[in-house]
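Re: the 624-residue chain
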Amino acid sequence: MCLHPFSQYSFAQTKQIDSLKNLLSKQLDDSLKVNTLNILSKSYFSIDPKISIQYANNAKDLALEIAYKNGVALAYKNIGIACYMQSKNVEAIQNWNSSLAIYTEIGDKVGHANILSNLGAIYFNQGVDAKAIEYYLQSLKLAEEINDSLRLATVLMNIGTVYLNKKANYDKSLNYYLQALPICESLKDKDALGTIYVNLGEIYFEKGEDSKALIYLKKSLVVYEGSENIPYSYIDIGKVYTKMGDYDNAIKNELMALDIANKLNGQLDMARSLLSLANTYNQKGETRIAIDYFLKGIDIAIEIKANAELRDMYKGISAAYSRNNDFDNAYKYQSLLIAIKDTLYNIETDKKLGSLDLDFQIYKKEGQISQQNQAIQRQKMIRNSFIIGFAIVIIFAGIFLKQRNKISKEKQRSEELLLNILPEETAEELKNTGTATAKSYDSVSVLFTDFKDFTKLSELLTPKELVAEISECFSAFDAIMHQYGIEKIKTIGDAYMAAGGLPTANHSHPVDVVKAAIAIREFMAEQKVKKEAEGKLFFRIRIGVHTGPVVSGVVGTKKFAYDIWGDTVNTASRMESSGEPGKVNISETTYQLIKDNFNCTYRGKLAAKNKGEIDMYFVEDEIA
């Protein structure tokens, strides 16, 4: 459904820009020129945000020169919008806060309310709903004070959208949309009305009030007539009829949606229409027709990377093939469903990392301000110290030197501890900037190890013996990783995870990681001989390696942890679990990268949990 805050932005058309530039060249350096620069900035929002920022900065500089505060506030606002459109959220917040301070100073409640609403939108998009609601409610209060109908309706809809997105708060969402509805009806704002009608239809549908859902969805058809949004209304109406068991009316509306989407060349709406038709035929029991629609929709969804729709299509088509007793295809699409779920999980993880990064950077900005204030206080204390007298300064100098040495030692110890937790490059970035940026890598080799029958063996050892055995093995693994320039990621119980090719990308990582895997295998073989001679129990190890893209980042605010995410990590784990004790099991992808350096034995296509069949190889030894 329409799960985005309603926006009031109305971007100027490209054709207006030339006339504005011509007007600008004839103007004096006054408030009119500032206004023209700000209008030009706004005109470039959707065309080129970087140029938009240039015009806004020019407007700000001139407005500051002539003391035109309204122009300064608007310029900061425009810079914030242009940053927001480039996903530079911290910069957007920083500029909007500057704009907010000026609007507050000059008593411009309209500008004040607008900035608060913009700040709410950033936090909504970051998934920080509580913070979004806080800003929206502040904006709502101001809009009520100044009786600004359009702004009032906008904020009410935005709050309703936050609660609608949370799924569990349909009643609260309904309350805010119903408050906004009469305002939008009086304003005759078709875009706003269409958004309200569709979302009200969605809420009533989820609440099981299908008749009310149809009323509002049919109203949205009227206001959306001729709009590119209309296919969505038809799709939603089709879903309601399908739920009611009125398949003929459902198919009629879904075909209307598909026809309009085709005419508008709206590929996402085409994919959604095909998905809706397929689901209706599936529920109707006509699985052959459903499968045809699913297959058409899948092709489009793959092309436009509509992963959420693709997930629903894989789920539906797998069920349809299963009903037809075509279990090979059912299994095929079930496997694809699991893979796309992993992809969506990783996207959600990236979003959470983005939210953490936003918090880190805002915290850093606040910390810089705090440091400036502390510096001022220190300067005052120094001046007072000189007044007390030079003798006292000498006494404190001795204490200071002693403390500085102590602090220096503690700092060195802290840095050593930090490097034990994080890669050096990441630790330096964290120390210097207060944040560690999430990074994407096109090619990384991930290694997993796991002790076979660990649980059974652990029951035969005392806790002290168990910890000592694991520590001895993992310490040796750490040394091997250091030898081959590989980054240890983490240990989870008896599992050990490392990766080559990050944080500094390189081309040798597949070979380096396989060499490290062989070294681990040889170490464990030596341990076996040693333990058997001593009459002690020993661990047997499985090792798996896979190569592919990952995302890395630092999570946590009190206890930092460097980690990696992506399907590559999942597949590397499957290589380990699908291997055998005392063997290094690698994927086809890794094999193609290391086959000239190592002798390998092809194992064939083997089933890997949640991954389907994968070509696997055992690494025997390095080619001399």
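The longest helix spans residues 327-388.
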